[in-house]
Structure formats: structure tokens, C-alpha cells
Design goal:
alpha+beta; Pseudouridine synthase; Archaeosine Trna-guanine Transglycosylase, Chain: A, domain 4; 3 domains; nine-stranded mixed beta sheet; five-stranded mixed beta sheet; 35% strand
């Protein structure tokens, strides 16, 4: 006899302001329980040390997670000069020190060198997989792990303030897969010293912003009240970068069953181009994410709100 799925069919996004000291998975579990949702996930992992925007998807919104994860992110973070740790943040063990402290002008002069598409080596204590295992799991077992370099994009990297000679605060607008701890580490190397991140706050993930985020404490107080539901955003929240295309009821039914459809009027598909991902919408409701193929639409992820 199949197991009965726990939870209700709740669909939408919660723009959570994750607290420090909690993993992203723990935050998702708490929000899922608060909404009694059958399914939940998140867009973009935050380290336990970090706070700020963690978009949590409930129900069919989980099918939009890959598109939100790919969005640009804004971080504000503090760096401590002269001390390196094995985790590259304040939770790690000290592995190196330096007496060198960079001056403000030197810091500002170094920042443009990180703008654009750059090569970055993820921290050893990161979620990237090495030989099928998470890098942080192998590092915690004492292995000397070496994650592969990757290309990441930094659009903006600014020095916000320098409270004292030992520390500095930065803000960065980055693309998918960027590790802020690695960014701080590499900046320190260029400046002739070592460093680690002491504070990390995510200010935005695409259209999800910190000034509109809600804390776990507030959600918990609201419980299952109508007020809590006001903080459940629509599935299409922050998907404005993906073009929307209205489809007929017949086309919607075909897409929902995983079948491709050929458009009678192919101008929209032709203008966007082959392989572009779109949102197929019927009667103001998201039906599927689809790709333009041969002038028609091929469903990638189909949504079911029933």
C-alpha cells in the first residue's frame, strides 16, 4: 500500500530572511512545517554563518527553482585581514596568519581585477561534489580536497567601508556558482595577505529582496493564519526574465501531458529564437516551462496545481 504523502498542496514562494546558525535545509524544513506543505525546496544555498534572502519554494514552485538559482545575487560581507581559516569563514580553524594589512587605496585598486568572468576555485568546505561526495564531507574527514576551478561572473565589487585596519566591508553583485568566501580569499592574496569572511548577508536573489523578506520568528507567530498566507508569493514571482506566451486550452492540455505543440502563429517563437525557454500561460495561470523547438514548444517542466 503506498505511503500517504504528508502535508497540503501549498504552492508558492516564501522570501525568507534566514538567520545565522541555521543551514538552508533546516530553514526549508521549518517553513515547510509552518505551512504544512507537502513539498518544499530552496533557491541558492546559504552557509549556516550567512543571513539574508533564501527563496523557499513550496509545491509546484519547486519546478521554478533552477531559474531562480541562475539569477544574479547581491551580497554584503565583512572580511578580517591577516587570518586565514580552513573553512574561509569565522567558524573554521586558523591555518595561517599575516602581519600585512592592505590600505584603502590598494583595496580599491585591486577590485577591478575581479570584475567580469573570472576563474575561481571553490572552498574545500563547499557543497561541490568530488568523486560523488560533497567536498565539505571529505574535508571534515581530514582529506586534502581540491575542488576544480570554475568560471564565475562578478558584475560589481565595491568597498563599502573600512572600520579599522583589520577589517573591511564589501558588496558584490555576482552570477551563479560564485563563492564569496573564495572571492575574499583571492582578494587577500592579490593584496599580499590572508583573510576570512566574518559576516555574510545576502541582499537579493533576482527579484527576491532582503527589505521584503520575512523572518522565521514572524512566520512562526502567524502560524496557519490568513496573515501567514499573505507572505506566500505566487509561483511566477521573480520569473519576469523568462518570456511569457499565452497558449490555448488545447495547447495547455497537450503541454500538461508532456506533448510538444506546433504554433499556428509562429512569429513569437521565431523572434525569440530556437532553444529559448519560455513560460506557457493559459488563463493567467502558469502551465509549463517550455523550449522553442522548430517553431513550436517542447515542455521542460509541467506544473500541476490540482
Amino acid at each position: 500500500m503506498p505511503r500517504k504523502r504528508k502535508g497540503r498542496p501549498v504552492h508558492g514562494w516564501v522570501n525568507l530572511d534566514k538567520p545565522a546558525g541555521m543551514s538552508s535545509a533546516q530553514a526549508v524544513a521549518k517553513v515547510r512545517r509552518l505551512f504544512d506543505a507537502a513539498k518544499a525546496g530552496h533557491a541558492g544555498t546559504l552557509d549556516p554563518l550567512a543571513t539574508g534572502v533564501l527563496p523557499i519554494a513550496l509545491g509546484e514552485a519547486t519546478k521554478a527553482v533552477p531559474y531562480i538559482v541562475a539569477d544574479r545575487k547581491i551580497y554584503r560581507f565583512a572580511v578580517r585581514w591577516g587570518v586565514a581559516t580552513d573553512t574561509e569563514d569565522a567558524e573554521g580553524r586558523v591555518i595561517a596568519t599575516s602581519a600585512a594589512r592592505p590600505e584603502r587605496d590598494a583595496i580599491r585598486a585591486a577590485l577591478p581585477g575581479f570584475i567580469g568572468t573570472i576563474v575561481q576555485i571553490p572552498p574545500a568546505y563547499s557543497a561541490v561534489k568530488i568523486g560523488g561526495e560533497r567536498s565539505y564531507d571529505r574535508a571534515r574527514q581530514g582529506e586534502a580536497v581540491a575542488p576544480k576551478p570554475r568560471l564565475v561572473t562578478i558584475e560589481r565589487f565595491d568597498l563599502v567601508e573600512q572600520p579599522d585596519r583589520d577589517s573591511a566591508v564589501f558588496e558584490a553583485l555576482v552570477g551563479k556558482g560564485t563563492y564569496i568566501r573564495a572571492l575574499a580569499r583571492d582578494l587577500a592574496v592579490v593584496l599580499g595577505t590572508v583573510a576570512h569572511v566574518t559576516l555574510l548577508r545576502r541582499l537579493a536573489v533576482g527579484g527576491f529582496r532582503a527589505d521584503r523578506a520575512i523572518s522565521l520568528e514572524k512566520l512562526a507567530v502567524m502560524g496557519h493564519s490568513p496573515t501567514a498566507s499573505e507572505h506566500l508569493l505566487s509561483v511566477e514571482t521573480a520569473l519576469d526574465d523568462i518570456p511569457a506566451l499565452a497558449v490555448t486550452a488545447v495547447e495547455a492540455a497537450a503541454l500538461r501531458h508532456g506533448r510538444s505543440v506546433t504554433r499556428a502563429d509562429q512569429a513569437f517563437c521565431r523572434d525569440l529564437g530556437e532553444g529559448v525557454t519560455i513560460r506557457a500561460v493559459n488563463d493567467d495561470r502558469l502551465v509549463a516551462f517550455a523550449q522553442i523547438r522548430d517553431g513550436g514548444l517542447r515542455p521542460i517542466r509541467v506544473l500541476n496545481f490540482d
